[in-house]
Amino acid sequence: MIERSIKQEKPMIATVEDMKKRRSAGKEGRMTIARIAELSGTSKQVVSSILGGGSSSSRFSRKTFGRVTGIARKYNYRPNRTSVNLVSGRHGSVTVLFKDFYKIPFNAVNFLVHHAETYGQTVSFEIVKDNILPRCISEDSTDGIILFDDIDEFILNALQKFGVPHVIVNTWIRNQPNSITFDEEGMIRSVLKCFSDSGRKLPVIAIGNTGFYWNKIRLETVLAEYHEFGLQRPIILDAPGEDDPAKAMESIFAGNSKVDCLFVGEDFNRYVLLLDKLRRNRDFTIAYVYSANSYFNFPAVDFSIHQKEVPEKAIDLLNQIIKGEKPSGPVTMPYNMNFSSGKPDDVNCISGANLIK
Predict the structure, then answer these.
(1) pLDDT digits (tens, 9 = 90+) for 62-85
(2) Does 104 lie in the same domain as 37?
(3) Which one of 52, 206, 213, 299 has the minimum C-beta count within 10 Å?
């Protein structure tokens, strides 16, 4: 016996004969699950399960599976999604809620859609408006929700009230069983260790908006632990507080000849031209958090989360909850450390989780 999880065979391309059969079936009446059950000599429940709309507890043989799907193909049967939802109690879709679309990690959409498909789900997106409950919640039109953004408390309360499965990715909510968070503390320790192992002493730390948890935690970790790596107290560049962060950084380097290492925890691209100029006359170690479309020709160390792993973890965790299982979170995603000489294709990657024992 086999479980319902057997994937339905891909539909064949319609031929002239197929079209004739379809017209013939239309004259006789629309093909239904009941009719397929009658023709295949099995129950409606089994047919419904095989064709994607029934109970996951149904069992059937490979022979039955082949007989049912063969009849469905022969008569060009297409399940009605509304009816399927009523039978299965599922919508076959998950929703990404967001306030700012750019909070969704680079390339995540592509991997979300492809991985959700392995669960037989589509992915929809809905923007959150102030003081309005999203339609996917108010109209019960999704199986689960993924949040890449800090959402208003009344929406979080509604998710709890209505029992909507949801997963929270890279927000201030870091310690819940349905949370996925990035290992900011571990990443900063890896940065400090990298500087220490390189014989550096005085770092500059460029930090972005501390209203985002990752920037706040990066700054707190740097200030709490730099001395454990034999480093001097870092010079902090508060990028949002500067009219021109690149000029502010240039002033720091010009005014302190002992600065010998730099970590950029915000938009690295704005500093590339400056760093290229500084590197020509000065030896210092550069580390940064990966930024898409960064191009430079000087040595640097970047820290990044694998773009594919985050959305796949989110879909997996969400489906645990949808199935009624206890979520396995909080899930902490480690940063990878990549060494580049600045030459094309010269990159060596090591897992950030292995840097600090």
Answers:
(1) 888 888 888 888 888 876 655 555
(2) no
(3) 299
Rounded Cα gap, residues 47 and 54, in angstroms: 8
Number of domains present in the structure of the chain: 3
Strands (E), the chain: 93-98, 122-127, 145-147, 166-169, 179-182, 203-207, 235-238, 261-264, 285-289, 300-304, 331-333, 336-340, 347-351
Q: Note the pLDDT tens digit of each residue in 154-187.
A: 999 999 999 999 999 989 988 999 999 999 999 9
> In terms of pLDDT, which residue wins out, 110 or 23?
110
> Which domain-ending residue is among 88, 110, 135?
88
Task: Give 227's contacts (C-beta < 8 A, 6+ positions apart).
Answer: 233
Quick one: 221 and 121 in the same domain?
A: no
DSSP letters, 77-112, are ----HHHHHHHHS--SEEEEEES-GGGSPTTHHHHH
8-state DSSP, 347: E
- The more confident residue out of 163 and 352 is 163
Instruction: Determine, yes or no, domain membership for 3.
Output: no
Residues 313 and 300 in one domain: no
CB 293 within 8 A of CB 269: yes
Give whole-number Cα distances, 248 to 244, 252, 278, in Å. Answer: 6, 6, 14
pLDDT grade for 9, boundaries at 50, 70 and 90: very low
Looking at 41, 64, 88, the residue that finishes a domain is: 88
Provide the CATH number for the domain around residue 43.
Answer: 1.10.260
Which three-class secondary structure state does DSSP give residue 50?
Answer: helix
In a domain, 143, yes or no: yes
Cα distance between residue 248 and residue 229, in whole Å: 26
Contacts of 172 (CB under 8 A, 6+ apart): 150, 213
Q: Which two tokens stand for residue 52?
A: 């994607």
Range of the domain at 112: 93-182+308-327
Q: Which amino acid is at 101?
A: F
Is 212 found in the same domain as 155? no
Distances (CA, A) of 169 to 50, 151, 175, 179: 34, 11, 11, 6
